[in-house]
């Protein structure tokens, strides 16, 4: 069934009797969808149904605006290998879990223009996506031409950018980072930064290998909390110097969190993201052996998994409202045929893990009874939409907003497994996790794209041009 065919003369849809999670609070009532837009939010429900409408009984469910994952790497070459998930498989998996929009990192390689990078990401994504998709622009080659192109990116609907303090083929130095911040400040753009001190990491990796520590545990040992905290601190002062907005991505440590807190007290305009892996898993996972003795490689991602104390600190920050968004850093590589190439040298293990499909269930289960529907709205949808210039087009159940909707059944109980996932990767880092709640119905631009955790087979995703 084509999306176009469904859109032509498609009946009005009414989601009846759910708990609607609106910007103003949770109300019981009906949600009316006409075409690709939300037509109305009706507290208490419609007195009577017009003829010809398509109805969905959602009693007992929360009705959220579609969830947004603002940190993904689909169909991406990372310097070692291509990710296992394409835009097609990754967005299909996202929708099965309730996520209706991703913001992926289009990445400029050295010698490439920003326009070339953007065109390449459109080539990979356009016409293949079940979820909507937007792009951040990651900048690895800062020069005068790149500076001039920043305004062109804004015209193309890109208002968020990324830079790295780690990875030699990607990172900018401090002066270049400052200039990039100055370039995006006039239109209130935001810079997302991978905060690890790459020089320290390179040296510590060399020392680990020299000492004979070549297994996955060497990955965590070579990227200590101090390397993250130092880089976050440096970014905070660059943001303070320029007055520009910044977003600390995938914060993983108590030390890093403390740098953000200190900067906020000084008035720095900093947003904070963390990810499910840093709220649920710790560095003991690197010692897992599994059947082939190399299971710890599944958890090689950057930054690495941390100490239980760091996990506790980040959970406390989520409960205190200090975290603005929980996204995934979905960057999937197969254990067999990709990660196992680093069996004798952890520095050759591709960095990254899957997660785009399971984030909503993991977060709602982890914070069940301590956070409510409005908190989950902010952490999984509204926060991303507001930070990255999509609100209220996305992230809101409101008349005129896009009809991206997740009907969440909190009563469902199920177990995460590689066997029942749609991510195109041969494992999940959350194998065996028992979770509470599941996406019963997921609409993308008014089209039913997933039901009870499985795709319906349509690809209604569109490119989302954003504003500052």
Automatic annotation (TrEMBL):
SUPFAM superfamilies: Composite domain of metallo-dependent hydrolases, Metallo-dependent hydrolases
Domain of life: Bacteria
Pfam families hit by this protein: Amidohydro_1 (PF01979)
Regions annotated as coiled coil: none
Domain Amidohydrolase-related: 62-447
Cofactor: Zn(2+)
Alphabetically ordered keywords of this record: Hydrolase, Metal-binding
InterPro entries hit by this protein: Amidohydro-rel, Hydantoinase/dihydroPyrase, Metal-dep_hydrolase_composite, Metal_Hydrolase, Metallo-dep_Hydrolases_sf
Gene3D superfamilies found in the cross-reference section: Metal-dependent hydrolases, Urease, subunit C, domain 1
PANTHER family membership: COLLAPSIN RESPONSE MEDIATOR PROTEIN (PTHR11647:SF1), HYDRANTOINASE/DIHYDROPYRIMIDINASE FAMILY MEMBER (PTHR11647)
Family that this chain belongs to: Belongs to the metallo-dependent hydrolases superfamily. Hydantoinase/dihydropyrimidinase family.
Name of the protein in question: Dihydropyrimidinase
Organism for this UniProt entry: Parafannyhessea umbonata
């Amino acid at each position: 069934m084509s999306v176009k065919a469904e859109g032509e003369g498609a009946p009005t849809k009414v989601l009846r009797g759910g708990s609607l999670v609106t910007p103003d609070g949770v109300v019981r009532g009906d949600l009316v969808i006409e075409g690709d837009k939300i037509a109305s939010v009706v507290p208490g429900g419609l007195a009577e149904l017009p003829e010809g409408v398509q109805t969905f009984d959602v009693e007992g469910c929360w009705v959220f605006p579609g969830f947004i994952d603002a940190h993904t790497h689909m169909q991406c070459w990372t310097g070692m290998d291509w990710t296992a998930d394409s835009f097609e498989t990754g967005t299909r998996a996202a929708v099965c879990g309730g996520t209706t929009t991703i913001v992926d990192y289009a990445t400029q390689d050295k010698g490439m223009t920003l326009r070339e990078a953007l065109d390449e990401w459109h080539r990979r994504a356009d016409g293949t996506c079940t979820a909507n998709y937007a792009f951040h622009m990651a900048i690895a080659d800062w020069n005068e031409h790149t500076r001039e192109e920043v305004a062109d990116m804004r015209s193309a609907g890109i208002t968020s950018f990324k830079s790295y303090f780690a990875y030699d083929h990607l990172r900018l130095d401090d002066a270049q980072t400052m200039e990039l911040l100055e370039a995006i400040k006039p239109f209130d753009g935001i810079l997302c930064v991978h905060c690890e001190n790459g020089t320290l990491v390179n040296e510590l990796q060399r020392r680990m290998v020299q000492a004979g520590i070549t297994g996955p545990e060497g990955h965590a040992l070579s990227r200590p909390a101090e390397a993250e905290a130092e880089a976050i601190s440096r970014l905070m002062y660059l943001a303070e110097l320029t007055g520009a907005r910044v977003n600390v991505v995938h914060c993983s440590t108590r030390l890093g969190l403390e740098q953000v807190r200190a900067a906020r007290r000084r008035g720095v305009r900093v947003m904070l993201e963390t990810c499910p892996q840093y709220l649920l898993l710790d560095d003991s996972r690197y010692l897992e052996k599994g059947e082939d003795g190399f299971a710890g490689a599944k958890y090689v991602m950057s930054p690495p998994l941390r100490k239980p104390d760091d996990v506790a600190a980040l959970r406390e920050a989520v409960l205190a409202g200090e975290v603005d968004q929980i996204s995934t850093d979905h960057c999937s590589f197969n254990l067999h045929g990709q990660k196992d190439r680093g069996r004798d040298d952890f520095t050759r293990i591709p960095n990254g893990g899957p997660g785009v499909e399971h984030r909503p269930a993991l977060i709602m289960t982890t914070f069940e009874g301590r956070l409510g529907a409005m908190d989950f709205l902010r952490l999984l949808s509204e926060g991303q939409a507001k930070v990255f210039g999509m609100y209220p087009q996305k992230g809101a159940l409101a008349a005129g907003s896009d009809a991206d909707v997740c009907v969440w059944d909190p009563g469902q109980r199920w177990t995460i497994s590689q066997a029942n996932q749609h991510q195109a990767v041969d494992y999940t880092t959350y194998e065996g996790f028992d979770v509470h709640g599941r996406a019963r119905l997921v609409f993308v631009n008014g089209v039913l794209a997933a039901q009870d955790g499985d795709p319906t087979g349509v690809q209604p995703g569109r490119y989302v041009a954003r504003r500052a």
